[in-house]
Amino acid sequence: MVGQDRGCHLPMTRRDLLLASASSTVAAAGVGAAPSTSAPAARAVNVPTAQVTLVVNGQTHTLALDTRTTLLDALRELLQLTGPKKGCDHGQCGACTVILDGRRINSCLTLAVMHPGAKVTTIEGLGTPAHLHPLQDAFIKHDGYQCGYCTPGQICSAVGMLDELAQGIPSHVSADLAGKPLLSIDELRERMSGNICRCGAYSNIVEAIAEVAGGGVA
Ligand code: FES
Ligand code: FES
Asked: Residue 94 and residue 90: Cα distance in Å, rounded?
């Protein structure tokens, strides 16, 4: 009992003390309090804006946006292209991968205003339900997804990755930096390592990409 310590005889039990501290915490948080009428009015904020033109999936868009808008947010929030996904917003999962001027990029890590006039391809621009991209076809055939959240990024990344292979750009596992990289499972896995699949569909994803890559991937 709190009131019994060191000869103190306050008529307060442990239960009384807990109740008192709980009610003072609620009061401090303002729960149940009437809204303050003396709160200062919100100050007007000068948001830096800019105009940028992007060619997205073949269509030209001129956007007036907050200069801090990422390419991912511009695509999703302003153009309503929800194929690119916001998985981590920190460049760690690859769900937001799109193709920008022919190269794959994490669209959450770059600002839209950094790319005036750029050509952007999202999953919506790769194929249509009636005319799927070969990689979309292969992902369906090989069951390369479960929830599908990572799939648009996986497919855009695979498109960019196969193009890098075709150009002879080496990866971390390429044995010969000067020679043409081998089309191997190790190369595919390494080059796709920036795209995380929380469902763990990796082996099927690699099978799908290997089929499209052709050339006897081993
Ligand atoms: S949302 Fe861009 S890398 Fe995860
Ligand atoms: S299919 Fe679910 S995260 Fe990849």
From this structure: 9
> If you take atom 3 of ligand 1, which residue's CA is the nearest one?
91
HSE (CB half, 13 Å, CA atoms) of 41? 2
Q: If you write DSSP's letter for every residue of 58-92 in order, what string do you get?
A: TEEEEEEEETT-BHHHIIIIIS---SS--S-SSSS
Please list, in sequence order, all residues whose beta carbon lies within 8 angstroms of the beta carbon of residue 215, skipping any fewer than 6 positions away.
183
Mean pLDDT value of segment 133-152:
97
d(CA 88, CA 108): 9
Which protein residues touch ligand 2 with a CB less than 6 Å away? 145-151, 197-199, 201
Write out pLDDT tens, residues 99-137: 999 999 999 999 999 999 999 999 999 999 999 999 999
The number of the ligand nearest the C-alpha atom of 85 reads: 1
* Lookup: tokens for 51: 């105009």
Distance (Å) from CA 181 to ligand 2 centroid: 28
Buried b (16+ CB within 10 A) or exposed e, 148-185: ebbbbbbbbbbbbbbeebeeeebbeebeeeeeebbbbe
What are the backbone dihedrals phi and psi of residue 6, each rounded to the nearest 5 degrees, phi first?
Answer: 45, 40
pTM: 0.79
| C-alpha–C-alpha distance, residues 52 and 78, integer Å | 12
CATH top-level class of 127-218:
mainly alpha
Residues of the chain with CATH 3.10.20.30: 49-124
